[in-house]
């Protein structure tokens, strides 16, 4: 916990974890304010977890979430009221501490505090609240006449898509002025979390510092994006700073909506409730699998779209395989509750998957969406669609449950002019260029392209965006290239065997290897070796370094 003092009664910090509350209590804090909405990051504990840990330490906790860059006067007033009524001193936190510091600066300014003193206190704590001070001067409306930064290409997001496209751009034009905007200190190899939950990978092997991955010569702006002003070619950062650009690439990933299931946030990581979709919870999955001797193990899948649609059943297969090998499966009922109508969206892979469903005697329940969970009571409730279009609520008991939360575009994307009607970045599915706004491209999970949301898709999309953007800027000659919808889902059906599903738009099979080496419609040990030993170094040392092995883009067919 890195608590930074702003005033005698208030310190702020970046994201804290439940275990940090004991240290906070020892440091003398008596209250905690959370200014970060649940579900912003893959390693973010929910407020319910923080609240429970705070209560255990005798601290009072309050949830005052604010969306980055969209702090309202009402939220400033709520923050001021919390500071006035909560036991002091108070620790406030968000992703980096910036939102909490901004709320304090705005509340102090609104109360008539001297701007020089506000700025000095924030600067001493390491926070830039100049944007908030300009807002105070403008009586609540942040002015846009002061532009802090400019880069030729600005990339929003330092995940797989953002780093990969930065590296691909540098590989093509080393002197290009590029900036990546991302507030995170850690970059995660999220495809590895399924293997962590299966006891194959160690968690630490799926994480590296962001600083070690930003390509050489690329500027890293360690901040959160609040909003877009495409008509001015400007990105608004948290704290009201601005960054201008010639071209913009948007790759922020998606939001895991843990709060979208009633009761889930309060019980994650205990009571047998887990998820491989969070870095800190994947090891708990493996603990539950190892220790379960009998009972019912439930695995859930929410409505599409989600990150890696095969991941919910991967967790089921690896768990059931362990129980089978340990001789426990006969005492454990395995059940998959899927919001969709089929086991897998590409029919060619279903027969092989069904063999494993039968091997593990798993119960399949389609059109079932998890809507509520009671961890201490070990009960879950599903909304089940009927054939006549109606629905009913189904209650199930569990001893272990692996939950996949509903997923959507990040809030700052959903509310932006870049979004389509469903909140996703609206791009042409081949060129990955925005369909309405010139000079803007997007890739990865936040796009509205109808492909599988996987790291393999981002690996293919990054060179397409890099090439087309440089053609657009006049740095490359020749035609645009096209993304064909390729995505890959290595389905871990048992320890040592994988069904390597590779497909593009419309479910077209797109194998990368000859059938004699890897037949994607059949489980194989070779595909397992690819997943276990080759894909991680390909990710770290090729994809994020601009080396486009099996990812060279193809020219657009203008006649099509």
Automatic annotation (TrEMBL):
Domain FAD/NAD(P)-binding: 152-271
Gene Ontology biological-process entries: sulfide oxidation, using sulfide:quinone oxidoreductase
Claim: Mitochondrion is one of the keywords in the record: no
EC assignment: 1.8.5.-
GO molecular function: FAD binding; hydrolase activity; quinone binding; sulfide:quinone oxidoreductase activity
Span of domain Beta-lactamase hydrolase-like protein phosphatase-like: 2-109
Keyword Lyase: no
Main EC class the enzyme belongs to: oxidoreductase
Domain of life: Bacteria
PANTHER family assigned: SULFIDE:QUINONE OXIDOREDUCTASE (PTHR10632), SULFIDE:QUINONE OXIDOREDUCTASE, MITOCHONDRIAL (PTHR10632:SF2)
Name this polypeptide is given: Sulfide:quinone oxidoreductase
The species this protein was found in: Methylorubrum thiocyanatum
């Amino acid at each position: 916990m890195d608590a930074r003092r702003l005033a005698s009664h208030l310190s702020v910090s970046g994201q804290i974890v439940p275990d940090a509350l004991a240290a906070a209590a020892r440091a003398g804090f008596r209250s905690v304010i959370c200014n970060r909405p649940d579900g912003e990051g893959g390693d973010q504990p929910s407020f319910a977890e923080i609240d429970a840990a705070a209560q255990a330490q005798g601290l009072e906790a309050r949830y005052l979430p604010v969306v980055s860059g969209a702090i309202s006067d009402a939220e400033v007033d709520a923050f001021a009221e919390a500071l006035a009524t909560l036991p002091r001193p108070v620790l406030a936190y968000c992703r980096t501490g910036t939102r909490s510091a901004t709320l304090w600066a705005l509340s102090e300014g609104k109360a008539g505090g001297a701007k020089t003193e506000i700025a000095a206190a924030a600067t001493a704590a390491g926070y830039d609240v100049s944007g908030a001070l300009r807002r105070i001067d403008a009586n609540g409306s942040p002015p846009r006449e002061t532009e802090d930064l400019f880069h030729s290409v600005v990339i929003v997001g330092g995940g797989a898509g953002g780093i990969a496209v930065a590296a691909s751009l540098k590989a093509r034009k080393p002197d290009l002025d590029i900036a990546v905007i991302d507030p995170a200190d850690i970059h995660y190899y999220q495809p590895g979390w399924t293997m962590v939950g299966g006891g194959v990978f160690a968690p630490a092997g799926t994480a590296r510092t962001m600083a070690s991955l930003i390509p050489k010569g690329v500027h890293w702006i360690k901040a959160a994006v609040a909003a877009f002003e495409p008509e001015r070619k400007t990105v608004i950062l948290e704290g009201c700073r601005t960054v201008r650009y010639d071209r913009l690439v948007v790759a922020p990933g998606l939001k895991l909506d843990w709060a979208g299931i009633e009761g889930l946030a309060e019980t994650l990581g205990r009571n047998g409730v887990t998820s491989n979709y969070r870095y800190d919870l994947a090891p708990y999955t493996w603990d539950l699998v190892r220790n379960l001797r009998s009972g019912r193990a439930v695995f859930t899948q929410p409505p599409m779209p989600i990150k890696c649609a095969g991941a919910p059943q991967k967790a089921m297969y690896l768990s059931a395989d362990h129980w089978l090998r340990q001789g426990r499966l006969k005492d454990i009922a395995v059940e998959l509750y899927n919001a969709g109508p089929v086991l897998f969206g590409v029919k060619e892979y279903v027969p092989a998957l069904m063999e494993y469903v039968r091997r593990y005697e798993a119960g399949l329940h389609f059109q079932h969406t998890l809507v509520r969970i009671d961890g201490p009571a070990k009960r879950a409730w599903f909304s089940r669609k009927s054939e006549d279009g109606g629905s009913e609520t189904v209650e199930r008991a569990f001893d272990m449950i692996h939950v996949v939360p509903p997923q959507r575009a990040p809030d700052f994307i959903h509310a932006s002019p870049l979004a389509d009607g469903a909140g996703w970045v609206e791009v042409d599915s081949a060129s990955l260029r925005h369909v309405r706004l010139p000079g803007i491209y997007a890739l990865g999970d936040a796009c509205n392209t109808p492909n599988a949301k996987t790291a393999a898709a981002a690996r293919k999309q990054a060179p397409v965006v890099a090439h087309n953007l440089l053609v657009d800027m006049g740095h490359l000659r020749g035609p645009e290239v096209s993304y064909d919808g390729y995505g890959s889902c290595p389905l871990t059906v048992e320890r040592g065997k994988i069904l390597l599903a590779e497909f593009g738009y419309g479910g077209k099979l797109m194998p990368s290897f000859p059938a004699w080496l890897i037949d994607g419609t059949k489980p194989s040990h070779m595909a397992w070796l690819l997943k276990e030993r080759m894909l991680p170094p390909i990710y770290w040392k090729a994809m994020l370094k601009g080396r486009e092995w099996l990812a060279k883009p193809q020219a657009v067919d203008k006649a099509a």
